Amino acid sequence: MKSLWNDEAAAAFSDDDLGMRVYSSRLLGSDENLVMHGGGNTSVKATTNDFFGRALKVLYVKGSGWDLKTIEKPGFPAIKLQETQMLAELETLSDTDMTQQLRVLMLDPSAPSPSVEAILHAILPSKFIDHTHTDAIITLSNNPQGKRILEAVFPDCLILPYVMPGFILSRQVNQAIKQNDPNHYKGIILMHHGVFTYSDEAKIAYENMIELASRAEVYITENGTTLIATAEHEVDLLGLARIRNAVSLARGEAQLAILDRSPDAQGYSTLDTVAEISSRGPITPDHVIRTKRIPVVIGATPAKGVPEIHQYVTDYKKYFEENRTPQLQILDPAPRVGIWRNAGSIAFGSGVKECNIVADICLLYTSPSPRD
Length: 372
Known about the structure:
L-fuculose-1-phosphate Aldolase; 7-stranded mixed sheet; alpha+beta; 2 domains; 15 helices; 372 residues
């Protein structure tokens, strides 16, 4: 992975903290090996004036609905820094209360809601904070020997176990940095989640991210094996229409179905172990909101009504009931990803944009890639 930093371009923002934040955020967002479709978040600590003209320390943090690839200044709502840091000291904080408190702390109530990781950004002492869901590092952490590998490859990083994003994660990091000075580390790696890098200089935070991701890529290249399975088969379009209809009924509205019938995708779908491999879950929980927990695996010749879809719906509802809490409400049970035996992978969605996002994430699994 190469740094895209350009000193001449960055010089235009030497006196503009938020402008510099936009510049380096876009560099991160331009590489889908770091973030995809709204993933990741960044922030900068600065001083601004409140409504009465008083100087106020704030955190500009990525807002909901913005993509790092195209983010602009309005995509970084300003929230009061000191009060945000105080939230990390609470013993408990529900998602609802956290969202409400972060909105209370916003200087502009019409701005987008701050990232759910705003508290974490606030407590890290550096000015510029970068957070990505780096494919290569997450791939290492997802290995059965992930912790051992990460400790060997990243002795200069603080490595923490996976917890749910939001307040729980912020509290975990807050406790960790009280015991381990973050300035002694190049970054913080969250198992199965992603990476934080930080510095008072945007260039250092960004290039540390690039260097850590590159280190993981080198390890995978040197120690991994590449599984290559390609195939080319004719596709029964009537069967595809039958699948799309069954998914539409499961979701309760008409769905699009985009079939990836490339040799890589078809080869993946022919693997004897594809049902087990594809059902291990996405590379990071961040993708679950796009792909659901697992795909539906459909036989080479879909029967009328596509019973695999019905079984998926039944299993989804059962899984929800077994793991629900009083605050949770079930979403629609329809799959977002299908593995169609011998034919390839299918992305389902209510529109082309949703399908394309799902399809992009599918490529992480169906394309040949090194595995340790």
